[in-house]
Write a structure and sequence with these properties.
6 domains, Dna Ligase, domain 1, alpha+beta, 39 strands, eight-stranded antiparallel beta barrel
């Protein structure tokens, strides 16, 4: 292939990946063109690009998935190449073929590779032919739910139902018994049709307690293909990766080489070029099985870039231009350790329901490399004042750290998460902090069932606490309240000089903590827990002594806190017992909310003469909403499964709501009789909209 330098690059995508591609293209001196839907008119990728073309429409089906609109935008802007990013049209062979006919360079693999490797059924057949280890299963798409039931029985439970054109966890369902096969087949089929326009579903054996480990490959037109190590992607929720790292803490060099060589063999078998990822599941004995090949850039590609030093977007562009790869396999070395967490607009305290709205405050941690060789990277597609839309994936950013060792990369990630300020929408940062701080994660004891096993009842940011976090929260709240009191006194003229030396006396009152551990708060009508403190302040430190043990088991302890904080700031830095920390602090009336290390702790500070009476205040009783099925998220009502007069049992499906490209099945919490169904399929829902009402019992 004759080399042809790309002058103008259109990015057929949105959000953080569009911004990330634009960044590399600009560094290469390439002009960039963004495309955008109506909700994305003010998106960050639109602002960063040299030019932006409107696609119209709101949903991806009306904008980013319309091939003709993308090609017209390329022609209008004079783009000579298109990078599809991931998702949308990135693995669509018809799109690649249309670009070829329009004489526009596709920054990705050839049409043959997309057709074969983008199809999980065909790719599995090719893998078997190429000598790649594969999972037992049925090689062809299922005709209907009856066939799914019959074949699953022959394979043996549990089985995995998977969309042939799927990816990102969409169109995937586990069936543990014959009763689950039919419903899961229909759900997988519906999700596949909605997300990919292809409702083919196949079935294979589900490997229990596996690790999800993938190999990054790069290939050029001349047949040179290399693997760039592996990524451990085992921590997943609903088959969606949450935390990724490179290298894997589980693989040895021999297994890494075998997996890499099989990945390369598979890529060569399909004449692959560009960047691609071969995904494997690995059992406890390091036996590995081919899962699928993604013929595109992966969400988690930054961790590979960190440990290899290669910019994958740059390499994709060079390969698309017809240039050879700049490396052979012996040139690839892995340096240090990198971890990525996916920051989403979702509420982990409400079963990870999507959250939409305006980012009223947005301050990511500072990116760059420090004097110890620790790097923090933030790939984001949002900005303060921007909106999170209901129409697309809820990703806010990818937070990446890279350090000489895994332990150092974990510590860097913990610090970066603590420093990530997001307000206006719910987000999963407390959950991510809890994950990377978990003993099992730090030991590298990972499987794809990690979240289900360690958080079987879901995640609660208020109960995810330890004594250190609680002590720090109490001290920060006391510090903040004292600072405001002093500020107020100075303004009113009560204090006429600078505070010097030590302030004698105590903080006047109690610190009342809400929601810590199994402690209760006023919203539940149960009494809070109290901790009496004495505090002495000087310019260097804030020392607090806890006077009596509480249900939090702090006991008699003395802590020293040094902080840098100005009223109004949300980010707090300092030293706690001579150890550095980063936390966030918010005020709501008398309450202070402290966020640190995956914990969200609410503290109420009261004067000593007020505290005894506060507990006697009547509590507002919340209305009984148990008779209603409420929408847990904004979204589209796909179907209502009951009618007025129906008797339902606990666990029975009531409705299905689609939000951010995922179907969510809503089931009955208990038995009842339907009295009203005020919503119908096709309705747009807001949070807490009533879908079904039951008769009073």
């Amino acid at each position: 292939m004759t080399s042809k330098a790309i002058q103008s690059l259109l990015i057929a995508n949105r959000g953080e990946i569009a911004c990330r591609i634009i960044r590399t293209a600009k560094q290469m001196g390439i002009r960039t063109i963004a495309v955008y839907s109506e909700p994305d008119a003010t998106g960050l990728h639109v602002q960063l690009a040299d030019e932006a073309i409107a696609l119209g429409g709101a949903s991806s089906a009306d904008s980013y998935l319309v091939i003709d609109k993308i090609i017209n935008a390329a022609k209008t802007s004079g783009a000579d190449a298109i990078h599809p990013g991931f998702g949308f049209l990135s693995e669509n062979a018809a799109f690649a073929e249309a670009l070829a006919q329009a004489n526009i360079i596709f920054v990705g693999p050839g049409i043959e590779a997309i057709n074969v490797m983008g199809d999980k059924i065909e790719s599995k057949k090719l893998a078997q032919t190429a000598g790649v280890n594969t999972v037992p299963g049925h090689p062809d798409a299922l005709v209907d739910a009856d066939e799914a039931h019959a074949i699953a029985g022959n394979i043996g439970y549990p089985v995995m139902l998977k969309a042939s054109a799927g990816g990102g966890g969409k169109g995937m369902r586990i069936a543990w018994n014959e009763n689950e096969v039919r419903d899961n087949f229909i759900s997988a089929q519906n999700e596949a049709r909605s997300a990919f326009g292809d409702d083919r579903v196949f079935v294979e054996k589900y490997i229990e307690r596996p690790r999800h480990i993938e190999i990054q490959v790069l290939a050029d037109e001349s047949g040179n293909c290399v693997y760039l190590g592996e990524r451990e992607c085992s921590i997943q929720r609903r088959h969606q990766k949450v935390v990724e790292e490179a290298p894997s803490p589980f693989l040895d060099e021999a297994t890494r080489q075998k997996m890499g060589e099989q990945a390369v063999a598979l890529a060569k078998a399909v004449n692959y070029r560009s960047a691609g990822t071969v995904e494997f599941i690995v059992d406890k004995n390091r036996n590995f099985y081919f899962l699928e090949m993604n013929t595109r850039l992966q969400v988690e590609h930054p961790v590979t870039e960190c440990i290899t030093g290669y910019d994958l977007v740059e390499q994709m562009i060079h390969v698309a231009e017809g240039r050879p790869l700049p490396m052979q396999q012996h040139d690839v070395t892995l340096t240090g350790w990198s971890i990525e967490t996916r920051v989403y607009a979702e509420d982990p305290d409400r079963q990870f329901m999507p959250s939409i709205g305006r980012l009223t405050h947005y301050l990511p941690p500072v990116a760059g490399t420090d004097k110890h060789g620790v790097t923090t990277r933030v790939d984001t597609g949002v900005f303060e004042g921007g909106d999170i839309s209901m129409y697309y994936d809820p990703m806010i950013a990818k937070l990446v750290t890279h350090a000489p060792t895994r332990d150092e990369a974990i510590v860097a990630m913990q610090t970066a998460l603590d420093a990530y300020v997001i307000r206006g929408v719910k987000h999963n940062i407390p959950f991510l902090s809890a994950l990377v701080s978990h003993d099992a994660f730090q030991k590298g004891d990972l499987t794809t069932a990690f979240i289900d096993e360690h958080y079987p009842e879901g995640f609660n940011s208020e109960s995810n606490q330890n004594d250190r976090q609680l002590s720090l929260a109490l001290l920060l709240a006391a510090t903040a309240q004292r600072t405001l009191d002093e500020q107020s006194a100075q303004i009113s003229g009560q204090i006429t000089s600078q505070i010097t030396g030590q302030i004698t006396g105590q903080i006047s009152g109690q610190i009342t903590g809400h929601g810590a551990g199994h402690a209760n708060n006023h919203s539940t009508g149960r009494p809070p827990q109290h901790t009496n403190v004495s505090a002495y302040v000087d310019r260097e430190a804030f020392a607090v002594t806890f006077h009596k043990a509480t249900q939090w088991s702090i006991g008699d302890a003395r802590h020293t806190l040094t902080v840098e904080w100005t009223p109004g700031q949300r980010l707090v830095t300092g030293d706690f017992n001579n150890e550095p920390f980063v936390a966030q602090i918010d005020r709501d009336g008398l309450h202070w909310q402290i966020t640190h290390g995956g914990s969200v702790i609410t503290v109420l500070i009261l004067d000593s003469h007020v505290a005894p009476y506060f507990d006697l205040m009547p509590v507002k009783v919340a209305p009984d909403m148990s008779r209603y099925l409420l929408s847990p998220m904004p979204g589209l009502l796909i179907r209502v499964s009951v009618d007025v007069g129906d008797t339902v049992e606990a666990g029975q499906e009531l409705a299905v709501v689609e939000a951010m490209k995922m179907e969510n099945v809503l089931v009955a919490a208990r038995a009842g009789v339907v009295s009203q169904v005020p919503r119908t399929a096709g309705d747009n829902l807001a949070v807490d909209d009533i879908i079904v009402e039951f008769e009073a019992t």
